[in-house]
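Researcher: Re-running this chain for the archive, since the previous output was lost when a drive failed. Same request as before.
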Amino acid sequence: MAPKLAFMASDATSAQKALVDLSERYGNVPPENADVIVALGGDGFMLNTLHGTQELDVPVYGMNRGTVGFLMNEFSIEHLEERLGDAELEVINPLRMRATTTGGEVIEKLAINEVSMLRAGPQAAKIAISVDGRRRLAELVCDGALIATPAGSTAYNYSAHGPILPIGADVLALTAIAAFRPRRWRGALLPKAAQVRFDVLEPDKRPVMADADSRSAGVVTSVEVTSAKDIRHKVLFDPGHGLEERLIREQFV
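Model: Regenerated structure tokens:
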């Protein structure tokens, strides 16, 4: 029996055309009734789709109608059902961010790629970093810092000169953004189960913003980050082009 497919598309013209063509060919059911959700767009739309459907426990197969498409498969209208039958499943646990704003509000958000902190003023940020309740860095002077999952390690983390992580590695990348002191500090690899806390020093003079996958929590005084083991994003990739292969390949270009 053919799988029931739910097609979701970004606003891009190419994605909207693909939505029409694929729906005519394979049908289109609501996501809650689907065996597979097919996301048409770029990596940003893929992240939005995963966030928006995480309660459904339905695997998501992305086809690239965007720019980079690291989380996406090659686009083709033909043989989609066969590709889905052969696809490899990767399971991703997001990060859970718990941020306290300067106004005292506590905001929780999930991040599939990374939780990042960025200075919000003209002066460098000063951030203290604790891991599992132990202060590890008393003062990081920087433009910011981030924690990335293996799935997100080739995104903002890689641009900030952080390491690329194999998808099967139970580690997170803690990466500094333009570190001034300690001079050229590049960050650390932490166990996936680690609880990381950032405390903003001099928050009035040196304001810092916090984001989870570019979803802003505003200006903050502290951020706590843990892996959300209770949430499992199921992502499908064509054989030989799964995240494991992509993460390895990316390190040799």
